[in-house]
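Homework help thread (please don't just give me the answer)

Our assignment gives two proteins as sequence + structure token strings and asks us to describe the second one. The first is just a warm-up. Here they are:
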Amino acid sequence: MVNVNTVYTTVLQILNKEQRGYVTPQEFNNLAQQVQLEIFESYFPDGTQLNRQNQNNTQNNTEFFNIFKNQNEKIFPFIKDLAFSYDALTTQPMWIYSVAGSATSGSIQESQIYWMGEILSKYNSSLVGNTDPKASSFGGEYITQLVTRADYNKITRSKLTAPTEKFPIAFASTKTVNPLLEVGLTISPQPSSVSVNCIVAPAPPIWAFTQAPGTGQYIYSPARSNSFSLVYQEQTNIIMGILKYAGVIINDPTIIDLASQEVAQVQANEKS
């Protein structure tokens, strides 16, 4: 992870070297969250592009210089198996995962689902271990196919295509219940437990502080802060990305141009 205080102090040192201006903690936190999200979202189209090169054997494949592998490793901190809980009190009973919808200073946002991957539905059948081919259910854990709501209705209403424990289906929905964002899965047939392999969004970085009595000087508060979720190798990209936006705030086109050129050069080197 990239230390939020290291990034903030570096940004301030670069901006103040020639008395170019100042970025407040609140401005920094907003810029840091935007830049982190931009870098995170760039992993997916970049990964697709690098995967094509990897399949065509047009890139190096040594222990530390496989750029597709290196790009893939940047995603590892965001891959999680999340357990859903059953909520029978909703209008349509479903499996729910609730996450914090917003972050406030000094708090760390819970895992916000960015993409859902493999869904596993577990069935605790009384027929576990039964090898009778006539038995309709043996229990166990099975991959669940995610379909649209319209397809779900069609499949479950047909006797020929009705889902079974070995071939369950599900559709997803979301709703906001302040301050929570709930992701729901309606699954047929009804399992006993559900887990989903997901990519979660990075929690917002926060540079928290206290103010010195009398002077009002900002003093870094590590216990209330939240560092960047990105891997350490992204520190340069983060700093340059924040400087690019900071140039807009302090109205300095020189900072914008220099930071943009540096970001473009780093990205070109990573993809070449």
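The one we have to describe:
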Amino acid sequence: MISMVRQFVAAINAGDVAGIAACMTEGHRFIDATGDVHSGRETMRSGWEQYLALFPDYRIEIEEVIASETTVAAFGWATGSFHGGKDPVWRIPAAFKATIHCGLIDEWRVYSDIEPMMRSAGIRRFGDA
């Protein structure tokens, strides 16, 4: 299980959308940091293509992993910049929860404060001026 999560993160860090998709079940669910749910491997393949086009230097740094029978929790950092600027403009603490089914990631959930990422893309939320 932990090796599958590490493989998934390595594919994300490499910007390898085919590799990312290969780690997912067909009915894969992605729950983003806002709580929105995105379902289906093909939906997520497209979603990762779009996300990595906006943040091509997006990386996940895992510092600690905890696993049970079907669940892996990973803790660390997410870094990146909008359109891949020279240096990452944001580095945020992040946690990830993976549910494994038949050796693949059935659900990937992200917990992080996305405001630094949003600001790097010029997006203001919650009435910011």
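TA reply:
I won't write it for you, but here's a hint about the kind of observation we're looking for: DSSP finds four helices and six strands in the chain.
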